[in-house]
## 1
Amino acid sequence: MTKALYYDLPTVTECTARVVSCSEKDGRCLVSLDRTPIFPEGGGQLADGGFICFDGRELPILACRTEGEEILHTVPEPLEPGAAVTVRLDLDRRLDHSEQHTGEHILSGLASRLFGAVNVGFHMAEDYCTIDLDLPLTPEQLEALELEANRAVRGDLPVHTEVTDFEDAASRRLRKRAEKARGEVRIVYIDHGKVDSCTCCGTHLARTGMVGAIRITDSQHYKGGTRLWFACGGRAAKLGIRDRAALGALARRYSTSREELPAVIEKQINELAALKAELKQKSALLAETTAKALLEGAPRADGTPVICESLASANANDLRLMTDFLAGTGRAYIALLFAPGRDGTDYRMASSGSKLDMKSLCAAVNAAVNGKGGGNKQFAQGRTARAVEPETVKLLFDYIMKAES
């Protein structure tokens, strides 16, 4: 059985220990010690990091987990059972995890007290944390939750843990309890239960003031409730620095202040929407005019106008608009149109009242230009990564004329 110093002596960052066992799995070694300050992964919290030191060497602890009553440390090299070692905790990593976990208790406890929301999920990753609540919360409620959480931080309230058995824990009024827990049960209280009371196996700070700050960074509706992203302590400070830099860069780009930035961006969005609507209208008019001209000047095959053109100023959307217009004329026609671009050529074909199937024509075009595409009897489209030479366009025109004659 490994003695867990992170519970009994949470301020210990280094200790001597003896190797109990060492086994190999997937090219790495699992080491059990008689005692350790390293917290194993569990309760939604990541494992601590650190080193096992011996003979002047340091083996990084790559992972840590529990197996029965043993705590297994994953290291890259084997250790001899019975060997005396020194275990050194990565204090910055422990502090980060404890900040996030204590902040989670504050947020979850206050979400329950303020709105009756139940925490149904908690996840801590290396660069973000999430809480899943069973109720949908409005932006106003999330703002109130964040303000109240930081009020609890500023209050520098006590955080303490009580160890009891399952029967006693079941009789206590707690925000959340581990229903499957048996034997020894750890209960974390914040401000003696006024902010939170919950069974938990993680590591926590001694007072809420040590959390520093709590930021709700994002939220979304999730399974009928709310998933919120948050950051505490050092992570919150880094996010503040990042956001300030990003907002400052945007404000300078728009020649405005950070406070006025939302209004300036909203104005630009509205202007762009108006320009897009105007461009769409003009593109449709230009496509209609071009299609009319092509149709009126097209040579005929057995009385059917045949349009086969490469249009240097067109794009794939223009080709769609042109063929859509032609389809609405009610006249017989065949159209094969190319739109050359910097990184290839788009093509589209359409017909009405013709002998030639557009799916078959598309297969011929694909073969001629080494392209990919398909469609049905009336419409087809495709694209090639190469430029389509005038000689190829003429060759395809002759193919259409022959098929229609």
## 2
Amino acid sequence: MTSYALFQSDSPRKCQEYNLVLQAMDFESQVVHQDEHFYLLVDEQRAQQAYRQLKLYVSENAEQEIIEKPLRPLSEGFIGAYLYGLSLLIIAAFESTKAFGLNWQVNGLANSEKIADGEWWRTITALSLHADAAHLVGNIGFGAAFGVLVSQYIGSGAAWFSILLAGAFGNALNAYFYQTLHLSIGASTMVFAALGMLGIFALNDSQSYARRGIRRWAPLAATLGLLGFLGTSGERTDIMAHLTGYISGCIAALLWMIALRRTDHDIPAQSKFALACVGLVTVAWTLALG
């Protein structure tokens, strides 16, 4: 059994109480003592269920306790990251060989005037086009890393669907900002959308509440630092696209937080979110090439 520390305390009393509650509900759990702290361990695969049951138990009793909602396993986001990288590589191959006799870049780039005229699909197709190999590799690497981390909070399917929509919305905002003709390509708008989501989710994490004063804002400050470091360097860097992507990601994360607080449940149907993500990209490219 891979264990997850669902609750910790300096005193064994609460850990033992919660341990009995979970065992009564047929959960595998145990209390361990380490580094002067007591930890309530549960099976990582059932950590989300255990969290909900303990929160329900606490809400029905007089005392208010802070119970940490467990993150998903890091590996849960790997499949989405693989598919993200593979998709960019396939489209890059189609673009470089002008597959099917089509000019993929001309048909798919984010042209601000055409987006304003109703060609919304360009906000999505532009995310999969790249100027050169270095541009492509950088976006695959950083995008996959940020996507895996966002997946810990809301699941892989929901994470990549949200990142895609936030990236598209960032391209739309960028087109609106320029008004006149502006052309852009690259997944970096989506990459910085994932970074924005990560900053908001990390800021709202229960561990952040344990920090006081300015330290609580450290996760968001870290992502803003990365935005400044990664998003402003380079000769052909579209700084505004990076900024609008980051802002769109922050908005997407805030919307998820509102939704989760209202339902207090896990996000269902991760596979449906994943299929919707693939379907949206497919429809966008079909319209672009049609």
## 3
Amino acid sequence: MPDVSRTEIGRRIFSLQKEKNVELAIEKIRQHLGSEWAGFSQTDLKVLKYMLGEVWVYLERDLWEKITFSSITRIDLLDILSLGRKSLAKEMSEPNAVEGVTAILLPVAKRIP
């Protein structure tokens, strides 16, 4: 078995935690949107995964945990996807896109279920 540095192990653990949290968030969004979810493409899903992953890296964990992903509306999702597309197309910087998505998600954290 090849030697793997502690740094590399830490990076892999971080990456797995990010992926797991993003997948859980997407599942909550999907369940909440129900039949509306079918209107989103695989490309949309990739953009959503990318943006939620970047936000997960950016936010403190306790704040991430307070976001009620099951309250995200179709309009919220369309706004997140728009910012993600702009970031990927280099029409907007990644930090600005992350801040925009965070602004969308943070009010969600404060909504009363």
